[in-house]
Amino acid sequence: MTDAQIRDVAAASKAWPFEEARKLIQRLERAGGEGPVIFQTGYGPSGLPHMGTFGEVVRTSMVRHAFETLSDRPTKLICFSDDMDGMRKVPGNVPNQDMLAQHLGRSLTSVPDPFGTHESFAHHNNDRLRAFLDQFGFEYEFLSSTECYKSGRFNGALLRMLQVYDQIMEIVLPTLGEERRATYSPFLPVHPESGVVQQVPVLECDVANGTILYRSEDGEELETPVTDGNCKMQWRADWALRWFALGVDYEMAGKDLIDSVRLSGRIVRALGGTPPEGFNFELFLDEHGARISKSKGNESITVDDWLRYAPDESLAYYMFQRPRQAKRLYFDVIPKAVDEYVTFLDRYPEQEAKDRLANPVWHIHNGEPPAEYIPASFNLLLNLVSASNAEDRDILWGFINRYDPDAHPDNHPFLDRLVGYAINYYHDFVKPAKQYRPPTEQEREALSDLKARLQGLLTDGADGAGADGEAIQTVVYEVGKAHEFEPLRAWFGALYETLLGQTHGPRFGSFVEIYGLEETIALIEGALAGKFAA
Questions:
Q1: How many angstroms separate the Cα of 167 from the Cα of each of 171, 183, 490?
Q2: Considering 30, 131, 323, 446, which has the largest number of Cβ atoms within 10 A of its Cβ?
Q3: Total-model pTM
């Protein structure tokens, strides 16, 4: 398709990135102006990059690409680190915590690096963030809050903040409790000696000189310019400051920040600017169904964890699907995410244009999904490892070659990656949880019948050749019906629990086709002999 044809299809696509892009285009048409369209994501470097960081950047990048498909205007993605924020508490997952405790309240770029490798704690975490983003090939401009404040980049917006100080107070104070209202100020002065970012009330504003008078935390009255890094803004006002000073056109945020987005938007309007277009995504849930939060420390799976067990494409797919729906983020969602990604990738070449642009892989791969046939699902690979108890790539490739003699690691690199991931996942999760049970009397009779029928297939073909997955699946169904399993899925459950030691498994006919008739017959014989349950 030509670019014009793709644009026509995209203009009507119901995929959520295109819906967001069209909203942004409408905003830009109302606001006018030229120049790059600014997308922004924010990051607090008080801790290491986490799953939410990845989700926000990858989703924003998808909207950015959708916008570029619909518009000729240039774009830029800013990744903003709020590293001038004061360190409110010592993170529990870093070394030298006693040392860090001595620097509470100071801006993160003034706190020594507990790892001893960088200029400050923020510099360490910022480098980790950039390495994290670079690993996934994101295109972005990194901005440091400290540098923006101290270099004077925010000076004009800060002076404007001072001019509308009373309006900002009128916006924010009604949202606070009585005690907090008594001490609140949108400006947080940095103490000239201690470097502590102070949350103290402002006594006077001098708009003409661009200064504020405040009483420091030790009771001393001090006057300071609001510019050049002598003050930073409280976070909601700081968010509005960034939007105004950087001309941000689009920024998404978690559902828990809806009220903050509205409040920051009102502050931007008081400054004389226009709030960015936005999108509120749902938060992730842990294995118990509770919302995952950095403050709670209940993140059960990290990006590094995911990448040990599955490719980054599957993680991007997980972030793409249903962003406004809360989803469990735990290890057991990984195999399903991998196989759903592979399914969408397999469908893509045969789809019509409108379906291609609704396909997640189009958004994951910036409109150019790779073309690779993947003959085995991730779940099937897991079950091959489980059935053979073999944690060796060559053994797994031997099974795959039986199904597809032309498949090799050199011409199926993605499948080869899946093989390695399947071994890791099996070793860490499946193997420790395997629990066989002996077959019931009904199941023993059915297994004996299945064994006989599989032996018939083996006899009919040369070493089972010609017995494809569909034919085998039909035999399995026939056995289940003949032995009156009700419902029929109870028969498949029995196969998984007695032969593989797990409650779920792959399409059984496809598994047997790759694993082998002889090997499957041996599994059945082992189950009937009580070998596995013992």
A1: 6, 17, 66
A2: 446
A3: 0.90
Residues 337 and 256 in one domain: no
Largest CA distance in the chain: 96
Cα–Cα distance measured from residue 400 to residue 394, given in angstroms and rounded to the nearest whole number: 10
Give the list of residues 6+ apart from residue 231 with CB closer than 8 angstroms, or none: 149, 158, 187, 188, 189, 190, 212, 224, 225
Q: Is residue 252 pLDDT above 60, yes or no?
A: yes
Check residue 427 and report its DSSP letter.
I
- Number of domains the chain is built from: 3
Q: Which amino acid is at 354?
A: K
Q: 376: closest CA among 337, 346, 348, 349?
A: 346
How sure is the predictor about 99, in pLDDT bands with cuts at 50, 70 and 90?
very high
pLDDT of residue 294: 57
End-to-end alpha-carbon separation of the chain, Å? 60
- Is 420's pLDDT higher than 50? yes
Residue 80's φ and ψ, nearest 5 degrees, are: -105, 125
268's CB contacts (< 8 A; 6+ apart) are 240, 243, 244, 274, 275
Beta strand residue intervals within 293-440, DSSP E: 327-328
The reply to whether 441 and 497 lie within a common domain is: yes
Q: How many CB atoms lie within 10 A of CB 152?
A: 12
Examine residue 207 and state whether it is found in any structural domain, yes or no. no
Q: How many CA atoms lie within 13 A of 191 on its CB side?
A: 19
pLDDT at 464: 46
**Same domain for 262 and 156?**
yes
Element (H, E) at 158: helix 155-163
Residue 81 and residue 7 share a domain: yes
> 378-388 and 508-515 are packed helices; what angle lies between their axes, rounded to 10 degrees?
60
Residue type, position 248, single letter: V
Q: Which of 82-91, 468-477, 501-510 has the lowest mean pLDDT?
A: 501-510
Sequence-distant (6+) residues with CB within 8 A of 478 are 453
Res 462 pLDDT > 50: no
Q: With respect to residue 357, please indicate whether it lies within any of the assigned structural domains.
A: yes
Say yes or no to pLDDT of 134 above 60.
Answer: yes
Domain of residue 268: give its range.
3-171+234-285
Which of 80, 31, 27, 53 has its CA nearest to residue 238?
A: 80
Query: How many CB atoms are located within 10 Å of the residue 100 CB?
Result: 19
